Amino acid sequence: MSAATLKGPYWATVRQHRHAAWALPALAAVALAAVAALRLWVGDPGSDGPSVFPARGYNLLRLCMQYAGTALLLLPLLVGAFVAGPMTARELESGTWRLALTQSTTPRAWLGAKVLVAGLVSALGAAALVLVYRLGWTQVSNTWQLSRFDRGPYEATGPVLIGYCLLGVALGVLVGQLVRRTVAAMAVAGLLTGVVLAGLGSLRWSFLPVETNTIPFGGNPMKLAPPDSLMTDLGLLTASGSRLPNDACFERTREMGVCPADLNVTGRYADFHPASHYWPTQLIETAVVLALAAAALYAAFRMLRARRG
């Protein structure tokens, strides 16, 4: 983003935080180069199958995707902390925001410039990182801890990460005004963003109803759910249709596949989210996060109006 093409508070905001504004594009460029190199090392899985993978390249790519997914979970927290601290609270704490008001700038325009610049940079940066992550993740997806439903890969492969970054911006400008101490505002904004991310993460798989499949008790348990699905519950069915824990028979007989007659077990069941639930869940969660961000922004501007006019 070039400060030369902007005017007023937008120019001042970009100029003041130009180094931070280039951090995300630079990170995305470095990540793209690393992922591209690893993909070239691994090779094309469509040629002769996974057996042609150079083991070291594949293992390194998989390790990088695991750590990158975890790291991207922290991105919204960092965005919220930076907006709350250096962008908002520091100017209120030091009183330098009053200098902007002497340059024919209203308090609303001063805060709006911070929201627009931070929101645009974080959204574009997050989108670039999602695309780069997907470039490497597609080579190792559906392996342990790297399925589309796992914490980390789920956020890093869809629009929900962009939504959380925008939520970080909104909470940042709100907390920055409330706390008005740089370090404290950073801690509070990062913590609040993390709480929302963790809270919605624990609820996301209740947005859509699960699908249920049943098989006879002697059937193959591997056929209960597709291999690329998210299993939420697994157990036994009785003749009356009631459910029992999956280990109910083993607890009594200490033998796999053998059930006491009095339990009257006739089948097995599985509740799961199929792969087709991934994108609807992403869109629902993103909408919820954006609604929370809009509410936080509304509160931030209302507070500014009440305090500064």
What does this structure look like?
This protein is an alpha+beta fold and 309 residues long. It has two domains: 236 residues, no CATH class; 66 residues, no CATH class. 63% of the residues lie in helices and 9% in strands. The chain has 13 helices and four strands. It has a four-stranded antiparallel sheet with strand order 1-4-2-3, with no helix packed on it. Helix 1 packs across helix 8. The radius of gyration is 25 Å and the shape is elongated. It starts with 7 loop residues before the first helix and ends with a helix. About 3% of the residues have low confidence.
Largest β-sheet summary? 4 strands, antiparallel
- The number of strands is 4
* Form type: elongated
Tell me, rounded to a whole number, the average pLDDT.
88
Number of domains: 2
Order of the strands making up the biggest sheet: 1-4-2-3
Proportion of residues in β-strands: 5-15%
Q: What letter string, H or E per element, gives the SSE order? A: HHHHHHHHHHHEEEHEH
Regions with little confidence, pLDDT below 50 for 5+ residues: 46-53
Query: How far from one another are the termini?
Result: 30 Å
Helix content: 55-70%
Helix/strand class = alpha+beta
Total helices: the number is 13
Work out the radius of gyration.
25 Å
